[in-house]
Amino acid sequence: MKLYPHQVPDFPETNHWPDILRWCVMVMNEDCHEYHAMTQLLAKCLAQEGLSRGEVSIAERILDLIQLDFEIGLLECQATPYVDLNSVEMGGHA
Predict the structure, then answer these.
(1) Is residue 8, in this structure, part of any structural domain at all?
(2) Each residue's pLDDT tens digit in the chain (94 positions)?
(3) Given 24, 67, 71, 90, which residue has the most CB atoms within 10 angstroms?
């Protein structure tokens, strides 16, 4: 899923892993090496109503990387999208 900058959600105000993992999956780049791991952790967290200690350790490590990328502005969802003014969506004009 590709979000535009105005669609990027704020980091959750709760400390609940489902909320945090959802945010991570929403903002991280889909080609990130950790994307699949985070989607798996989110699925497990929702199915099992939580994470094991080992899974929390993995999630925290990946979360730190995502938050750093977010703070620096390296995530694709933070980039201003290229708008082709001649595209069908733009009707050939701005």
Answers:
(1) no
(2) 577 778 888 899 999 999 999 999 999 988 889 999 999 999 999 999 899 999 999 999 999 999 999 998 888 888 876 665 566 555 555 5
(3) 24
Domain that holds residue 51: 17-78
Which secondary-structure segment (H or E) carries 78?
none
Does some domain include residue 4? no
Q: What is the pTM of this model?
A: 0.77
Cβ pair 59, 41 in contact under 8 A: yes
Place of tokens 């903002």: 27
Q: How far apart are CA 29 and CA 44, in angstroms?
A: 20
35 lies in a domain? yes
Yes or no: say if 29 and 76 are a contact pair by the CB < 8 Å rule. yes
Measured distance CA(68)–CA(31) in Å, rounded: 17
Please give the tally of structural domains in the chain.
Answer: 1
